[in-house]
Amino acid sequence: MNRRGIALFTVLSTLAAAVAMASEETPHEGGGPGMMLFFSTINLLIFLYILARFVMPAVRTWVRDRRARVVHALEAAAAAKAEAEKLRAEWDARLAEMARTAETVRAQARRDAERERERILEAARKAAETIRRDAERAAAYEVRRTQAQLRAELVRQAVQVAEETTRQQWSPADQQRAVGEFLKQVQA
Amino acid sequence: MSAVARRYAKALFALAQEGGALEPTATATARVAAVALDPSVAPVLRSPLLSTPQRQELAATIARELTLSDLMTRFVQLLADHQRLADLPAIHQRFEELLDQAMGRVRISIRSATALVAEQQAELLATFAKITGKQVIPTIVIDSSLLGGVVVEAEGKVYDGSVRTQLDRLAKELTGTASL
């Protein structure tokens, strides 16, 4: 209801009340309860007219606006709620996805760790095998080297003994025989 | 032996052959080479500080002292002019090789652990004369390090019949089986 309507409503109400009071305070000749009822009815009708003409539209407008606001607020709330629900669902989905991702990552990390462990163990086994083979080879080499040294030493000593013996016991007959053998070989 | 020494020896040999003086020239080259190998003379012959006149004077002195033939005197002078006096021993060696080839001779070296009796020596010479197909001129050296047997070197080949080599071969075979 606007201000103009309220002012008009106030004036008309005051006038109607004044008419009603005047009719009650000024007794007419021949007037009775019928007239009282008539004027009261007129007053009521005027009052109702005023109400219907000026107050009700304002009240209806106010109620409609109020309803629209409430509806709008409800719709906004519903939309907000829907949005919130949607966000919640999204976040739930994200959380679930994150949990799955975390699980996948954990599983992958476990597999990687297992593979790495196997790889390290395999490398260690190979290294140990290589070391063992190298050690065996080195030991065998050392044995062969020692044997060769011993053999060389034995041969050296044998040659030395043979040299000494030859020096001491080589006779002209031996030389003659050696030259004879040499000539045979040369002529052959 | 340097190629230069070979060329000089070949030229001298050709000139000596022309003059019919191979043997005397060989003897002369041997004497000159002996002088050139002398420890007091060899460094002088090799010295690059010696001037050409000094080298010529040195060559003339050698020729005069050794009473060399004209051919040899000119040859020594030529070597002095070309700073080749130090090559005299090699030239002599090559000259002898050429002479031996021309005369159908071969020089062999015989190393023996003990002195060879005449019979052995003759047998060795006959054998190598047969092998080479040439007259053999031996150089015999007693080498006790051979322990026993002989080693003969002829025409670049070594015929080894020494006990030393047999022992070395035996030792090598024995140690060779245990090689790493």
Describe the structure.
The complex is a heterodimer of chains A (188) and B (180). Chain A is mainly α. Chain A has a domain of 122 residues. Helices cover 94% and strands 0% of the residues of chain A. Chain A has three helices and no strands. In chain A, α1 packs antiparallel against α2. The longest helix of chain A is centred in the middle third of the chain and has 137 residues. Chain A is rod-shaped and about 200 Å long. Helix content of chain B is 61%, strand content 16%. Chain B has two domains: 98 residues, Peroxidase, domain 1; 72 residues, no CATH class. Chain B is α+β, with helices and mostly antiparallel strands and 180 residues long. The model of chain B has no long low-confidence stretch (mean pLDDT 91). Chain B is built from eight helices and four strands; from the N terminus they run ααααααβαβββα. In chain B, strands 2-1-3-4 form a four-stranded mixed sheet. In chain B, α1 crosses α6 and α2 packs antiparallel against α6. Chain B starts with a helix and ends with a helix. The interface between A and B is medium-sized, with 28 and 31 residues.
